[in-house]
Amino acid sequence: MMFQATDVVGGYSAADEILKGLTITADAGEIVAIVGPNGAGKSTFLKAVTGVLPELKGHIELYGTKLNGRRPRQIAQMGVAYVPQENNVFATMTVRENLEMGGYIASDPAQRISEMFERFPILAEKRGDAARTLSGGQRQILAMAIAMMVSPRLLLLDEPSAGLSPIAATQLFETIREIAAQQVSVLLVEQNAMDALNMCDRAYILTAGQNHVTGSGAHLAADPDIRRTFLGG
Amino acid sequence: MDLIPQLLVNGIISGALLAIPAIGFTAIFAVLRFPNFSVASLATIGAFAGYAANVGLGLPAVPALVAAFMVAGLVGLASDEIALRPLRPYGALTAAIASIALTIVLENMVRFGFGNDLRGYDLPLVRDWRIMGVRVGPQQVQNLALALVIMAGVFAALKFSRIGKAMRAVADNPTLAELKGIDPVRVGRLTVFVAMGLVGAGGMLLGLGTSIDPLTGFRFILPIFAAAVVGGLGSIPGAALGAMVVGIGEELSLLVLSPAYKSAVGFIAIVLVLAFRPRGLLGERAY
């Protein structure tokens, strides 16, 4: 497996354990959805992978190299890109400057910025505008492009469709598929579980910080018990 | 009414000089998220470093200004590493209080080394110019030009250099900046060095027109703080704008107040801004 997290236990403090032994894997180019009720530990798991969670036990590795215990900066340098749900752009900086900061550790940021402008024409159009002036959908595209500046091997997306119109969300999911097609593994946390299951290759359903069910997205989406319990019928 | 053009010119000049340390103060707030009141003593240290270079080594004003920048930057960085950085994890208030203690220590070190006497820079005596009824000294014009050049340099570095953009990124969103591989400790150190260098250079520029003593920086801490608050704490263009507002406001206050009450303008500006626009004139935009 390209990415492997085994028996991950952790939280924001020693007394506040949210993840209680999670095991999640992803192969190259695979879209893996992580769904579950509020408080299941979905977003916390992504933070654990990026190194921002202060308390962490277990084993997380990327291509056989251990990630836990490293600083977020070092994890980013190893090819892990994270798009937080909120505050995922530099609001006061222009679109182009956001991409430059996304590519701070990239070997050829100018080339990557050109590629991003080609892939996301709306960003090229808005290159001189401050990120805070973008619409919600444009901001999510920018956040994704910032993450893609370093040619990541593992992309972590925390509720990327939150607050987007259905059209913008559909376009965003299409973009995620295109990214995965370039052999980038995607871990996708989504509040809209049905959308996530329909687009992913594999999914983990979590409850109370533990693995509940694992399977292909289509299989889980079709399971009547899963639909009733986790997808609202 | 004849006085108004003269007061406006004086206000613009003193506002531009005040902007330099105010930019330093607000830059530290933007990146490290606490008000560092040790700028008072660092302004004094810069003024004395410039004095030592100018009077002791016989250097002209501009190289002495570079010495003021370097010495204040290095002392600011060293004192931050020793006294303030270890306390920052305990919160902004803790760090702010520690910075007040630090400024007292540093000020007394200057007093120990140079004594309490007033000292003046060794500058050529030149006659003031009189332009359309407004009297202005060549040294004032040079100081204004230096302040504008320094400000332009700061803005250009923040706008165009990689590390300047990284400083703005950390000021804007420190968590995201670290996730993108920007080292917040390195950026913090650079910010402290540059900001305290600016404060030191500002201290010397403010002292060039008068004389200096160990309380030089302390006398300017209120207008510096007021400039940063008026412009929006953490906003570098805001600090420049706020300094202009405070500088011009202080001079225009002389129309109705005794010079002894000039410093009240800083207090009034802070009160008005906190009452009607708490985020300051330009908000919290780092750049």
TrEMBL record, chain A:
Kindly give the InterPro entries that the UniProt entry links to this protein.
Answer: AAA+_ATPase (IPR003593), ABC_transporter-like_ATP-bd (IPR003439), BCAA_Transport_ATP-bd_LivF (IPR052156), P-loop_NTPase (IPR027417)
Q: Which GO terms describe its biological process?
A: L-amino acid transport
Which Pfam families does the annotation name? ABC_tran
- Signal peptide range in chain numbering: none
Q: Where is the ABC transporter domain?
A: 3-233
GO MF, one term, reads: ATP hydrolysis activity
Q: What top-level branch of life does the organism fall under?
A: Bacteria
Keywords, sorted A to Z: Amino-acid transport, ATP-binding, Nucleotide-binding, Transport
What family does the database annotate? Answer: Belongs to the ABC transporter superfamily.
Report what the protein is called: Branched-chain amino acid transport ATP-binding protein LivF
UniProtKB/TrEMBL annotation, chain B:
GO CC terms of this entry: plasma membrane
Determine if rRNA-binding is one of this entry's keywords.
Answer: no
One GO biological process term is: amino acid transport
Keywords assigned: Amino-acid transport, Cell membrane, Membrane, Transmembrane, Transmembrane helix, Transport
Q: What does the UniProt entry say about where the protein is found?
A: Cell membrane
Q: Which family does it belong to?
A: Belongs to the binding-protein-dependent transport system permease family. LivHM subfamily.
What is the official name of this protein in its record?
Answer: High-affinity branched-chain amino acid transport system permease protein LivH
Species, as recorded: Candidatus Rhodobacter oscarellae
**Which lineage is the organism of this entry classified under, starting from the top rank?**
Bacteria, Pseudomonadati, Pseudomonadota, Alphaproteobacteria, Rhodobacterales
